[in-house]
Amino acid sequence: MKTSRIVSLLVLVAALAGSILAIAGHAGAEKISLGAKTIAPPSPVWLICSYDAEGKPNMMTASWAGIVCSKPPCVAVSLREATYTFGNIKAHEAYTVNIPSEKLAAVSAYTGVVSGRDVDKFAATGLTAVKSDLVDAPYIEECELVLECRLIKTVELGLHTIFIGEIIDVKADESILGENGSPDPEKHRPFIWSIGGYGFYGLGGHIGSVGELAKKYLE
Ligand SMILES: Cc1cc2nc3c(=O)[nH]c(=O)nc-3n(C[C@H](O)[C@H](O)[C@H](O)COP(=O)(O)O)c2cc1C
């Protein structure tokens, strides 16, 4: 048998084996391992406000953060010890979570690359620090949604320490509230950060209510 015919035969056998494997359940594309990394999109973009030892207000950007308990209502923010905010929150046992809208995107980028140790970020951005009546921390007047938190627990993990705060109050500008009294994402326009150099992304729009979407499989 000629070499070219043997090669063609081998190619045919390989193609057939591939088809059989695909039919047997390997039809999906294989996933690529990205390794043990902090990839879990979408990550929020929050501005964490605190007072330093002299009572100077500071804000920093945090994305390793989220709601962690409904009762009592709690949030968690993971901070590196190197941040100025870390010591501030430990000393005052309080912080505020300010959830910026897209119009504060440039501020949110800036407050994530400079430290309150070196600059007064409120003075640099022209934003207004308001003293919270409920916790020993400032919040940002220009931010439409603010959570006032009392530190209740810290959990050291490694590079980051989790600061768990009980939400004492949530304050919102009326302009972002929907008819049901809750913040309407279309009016508020919060945004996310995507790891891997993608930067900040806005929300894409309403997909559907949970009740309506779940119906497809409930019925
Ligand atoms: C989008 C974004 C998200 C960030 N998320 C975190 C975070 O979750 N935890 C953290 O320790 N640092 C985070 N950083 C880095 C801090 O914001 C940065 O170190 C900042 O300078 C700390 O400010 P401070 O020293 O005034 O506290 C983030 C930065 C950016 C730009």
Give an overview of the whole structure:
The protein is α+β, with helices and mostly antiparallel strands. The chain has one domain: Pnp Oxidase, Chain A (Roll). The chain is built from six helices and twelve strands. The chain has helices at 3-26, 84-92, 105-110, 121-125, 185-188, 210-218; strands at residues 43-44, 46-51, 57-62, 65-69, 74-80, 94-99, 129-131, 138-140, 145-156, 160-172, 191-194, 199-202. It has a seven-stranded antiparallel sheet. The longest helix has 24 residues, at 3-26. The site of flavin mononucleotide (FMN) has 22 residues, from strand 3, strand 5 and helix 2.
Short descriptors:
single chain, 219 residues, alpha+beta, Pnp Oxidase, Chain A, three-stranded antiparallel sheet, 6 helices, 32% strand, globular, binds flavin mononucleotide
* Helical fraction: 25-40%
Q: State the CATH topology.
A: Pnp Oxidase, Chain A
Order of the strands making up the biggest sheet? 3-2-6-9-10-5-4
The chain-level structural class is alpha+beta
Examine the secondary-structure arrangement and name the CATH architecture.
Answer: Roll
| Series of secondary-structure elements, N-terminal to C-terminal | HEEEEEHEHHEEEEHEEH
**Beta-strand level of the residues, as a percent range?**
25-35%
H/I helix tally:
6
Main beta sheet: 7 strands, antiparallel
CATH class: Mainly Beta
Q: State Rg.
A: 25 Å
